[in-house]
Fold:
Amino acid sequence: MKKYSLLLMLAMGVSFASAQTTEKIGDAHVSNYRDWAVGVHVGNMFTGGDLSSFSFNDEDNDFQFELGFGLDVTKYLNSVWGIKAQGMYGNISGTNGLNSFESKYFDYSLNAVMNLNSLVLRAKQNDRRWATLVSLGIGMSQTQALRSFNGVEVAQYGKVGDENWTNEVFIPMDVTFKYRLSNLLDLDFGVQGKYLFSDIADGFAGGRNNDMIVYSHVGLSFNFGGPKESTAVIYTNPLDGMYFDLAEVKDNFDQLTTDDDKDGVNNYFDKDNSTPEGAVVDGSGRALDVDQDGIPDNMDEDPFTAKGAKVDANGRAVDSDGDGVADYMDKEANTPAGTMVNFQGQTIKGGMDNAFIPSVYFAFNSASISAANHQRLATIARLMKNNPNTKIVVTGSADPRGSEEYNKNLGMRRAEAVKKQLSQVYGIDESRIEAKSVGETEQFANGRNDINRRADITIK
Structure:
C-alpha cells in the first residue's frame, strides 16, 4: 500500500512541476518573424587549380567566364543561426597555356549559417535593411572534365572520351550580403569558395594543391513563415532590444528617485515637471487650482473666484465695465464710469441705500491686501469720490478658528488695512472712514472660511 502511495505522490509531484514550466514566448522569438527563405542565384564559376580560369602563362591572359546557377532553402533557427541546403549547376573551365579543360559541374551541400549583424550591439533601433550572412558546410560535387593538350583531346583517368563522372567531397564557405526590398523579397549578392578534397576536378592531377572553385553570385530570396506583416528574423537584433529594455528600466528608476522641480512628486509620476518652487501640487505634480478657473493657485491673485467665472491672466474675475461687479454676475453690462450699481451690477436710481459695495477678502490669519482686492477697493474709492459727502464703515471679520479675542483683533487689523489703502492709495480722507471689528461673531457662510475672512463696507 505504501508503495502505491509513494508512486501516486511522485506522479502528482511531476504533474505539479510540469505545470510550473509553462513557456512564454517573447517579442524576440523566431515565431514572430519570417523564418524560412528560398533563394535563386546566378553568377560566375572561377576555377583555381592546376588548370585555372585565369592563366598568366597564356599570352593573352584570358579570363574564362563560366555561368553557374543555384537554388537554396534556409531555415532560420533564430536571429543569429540557420541551416541552409543548396544545390548548383554550371560549367567550369581552365588552362595553363598548353593544357585546358572544360566540364559540367553539379554540387549539393548542407551549411550552417550565421548572421553577423545580430552579433553586434549597435544600441540603435531602426528599420533595418541589411544583413550579412556567413556559412560553412560540407557537400558533394560532380564533374565530367574533358582535357586537351594543344587542342588535342588526351586521356583522362582511363581512356580518351571516358564519360564517367568524378565525385568529390568539398567544403563550401560563403559570404552573402542581403538587402531587404520588402518583407517578402531580398536582394542577395556574395561570393562562395568551394574547396575540393581532390586534385582531379580539372582532369589534370599535377600533384600540387587541391582544386578550388570560386562562385561570385547575385540573386533573390523569398521569405515566408511567421505573421503576414513581419520581416525576416535576420533583420532583428535581440541584443539591441535588451539594451533598450535595460535603458528604459534605468531611466524609470532614475525618474523614481529624482524630483527636478522639488514639488514632492518624483519625475516618473510628475505630469508637470516645471512647477515653480513653493507651488502646492496634487498627486500628479500639477499645481493646485482651487477655484478651477484655469490659473494655478501659485499664480492666481484671486484664488476664490466663483465657478464658471471668466478670469484674466492673473485669475481675477473680469469686470469689463469697471463697476465692481464681475461680468459673470453683472446683469447690466457697460454701465458708465462712476454709476452707482447694486450687487447685480444694475444702475441704482435715487439714493445710495441699495448701492452695492464689494467686500474685501483675506488669506488665513492675514491682514494684507492682495492684488485681486484692489479692483474692489477701486470701486469703493470711485463711489466715495463721486459722492463726497458719503461716509463708510469698514467692518472686519474673521473665521471661527482661533480664540475670540485674537479674532476680534484680527478683524480690526483687517478693517484698518482697508482704511489705510483707501487713504494712502486712492486719496480718500480718513475722516470719512470708520473701522471696527466683529471678530468671529458674524459668520456669513457656513463652512466657507474663505468668505468669512473679509471686511464689509456699509454706508454710514
